[in-house]
Amino acid sequence: MTKKLTFLGIETSCDETAAAVIRENDQGTADILSNVISSQVKEHNKFGGVVPELAARAHLENIEYIIKTAFNKSKISIDQIDGVAATAGPGLIVCLTVGLNIGKSIAAFSDKPFIGVNHLEGHALSPGLINKIQFPYLLLLISGGHTQFVIVKDVDKYEQLGTTIDDALGEAFDKTAKMLAFNYPGGPDIEKFAKLGDENFFQLPKPIINKAGCNLSFAGLKTAVLRETKKINNNVNLKNHMAASFQKTINKILRKKTRIAVEMFLKKTNKKNFQLIVAGGVAANKSIRENILSLSQEMNFNVVFPSLEFCGDNAAMIAWAGIQRYKKNITSELNLTAKSRWPLDKKAPYMKGPGLKL
Ligand code: KG4
Ligand code: ZN
Questions:
Q1: Which residues line ligand 1 at a C-beta cut-off of 6 Å?
Q2: Helix 286-299 crosses helix 236-269 at what angle (to 10 degrees)?
Q3: Cα 175 from chain centroid?
Q4: Is residue 116 a contact partner of residue 99, using CB atoms and an 8 Å limit?
Q5: Based on CB atoms within 10 Å of each CB, which residue in 77, 79, 242, 263 is the most buried?
Q6: How far is the CA of 337 from the centre of ligand 1 (A)?
Q7: Domain spanning 137-305, CATH class
Q8: Under 8 Å CB-to-CB from 255, ≥6 apart: which residues?
Q9: Whether pTM exceeds 0.90
Q10: Which CATH number fits domain 6-130+309-327: 3.40.50.140, 3.90.550.10, 3.10.310.30, 3.30.420.40?
């Protein structure tokens, strides 16, 4: 019987300070021995978004306590772990550096292997924490910083099919929520108030819906929301109608683009029985879940959503990605530095900025 690996994971790429201790189990998934998350939501709420310097300071203040708590809860000591994984990018450099440095120090002083993890790979592999997943699968990653369709061929082997050419989907939720004076992060409030509104009240644009394959765009939608919200004047009913109309428009865009991505996946892999994994913070949205689930029934594929606990940023997914990389003998040097940009598919074209042809 091969040894079951136990890893410490550390995540500080944005506004969550997180640490987790997880162990492989006999089912090929993970036992979550601890999964500790300290969210800075309250600190950023008054600014309607993440303020990098404040986030970095909060990580510095919390990280030691969060890691200690993760060890205490897991009833595992440093000498019993097999390695340390910390997020090394993409994200805010000042934030990433906090978790990365402490991860490297723990690995160095305890003489354990160190793995610098791509945050996106953490999300991409996160369903494997709970469900046994078969490669290749199609990933729809929808988070605050990223929106992409990717073929996950194996650990460290990704092919991007499409991405946003401007805002990330979570960003679109957050900016719309800010215009409606809802809380940060905006997704949960938009979802809550959408239930009270009329989704057909506002007619909003669906940018590049009929072009550019499964690439997506939300900037024009945001501008349209801005134009309409100027007329809303804090009217509660109109705000609810806007939340509902926005969410409905997003669902229409996602359904069309997911359909195209599935068709591309089928053509490229010839794999009829496959899974679509929907990961990232926005995957917590129930109306999006229902929408993609109904598309999966129509197009006959399986769809998997990570449990809510693992949809948003967490360190269990970083520890899990670390274990998967370690098993493939991919470890990092201790002089590894944080990266603000780090695409999963290194060959994917950069889809932002002037001169982009669709
Ligand atoms: O994956 P995540 O925790 O952090 C990043 O890596 O970005 O995603 C955070 C994003 C935020 O934009 C937040 O508004 C969005 O996920 N989100 C939601 C919901 N819950 C969180 N968006 C829509 N509906 C939700 N229920
Ligand atoms: Zn994330």
A1: 14, 143-145, 170, 173-174, 185-188, 191, 280-282, 284-285, 312-313
A2: 40
A3: 17
A4: no
A5: 242
A6: 26
A7: alpha beta
A8: 291, 292, 295
A9: yes
A10: 3.30.420.40
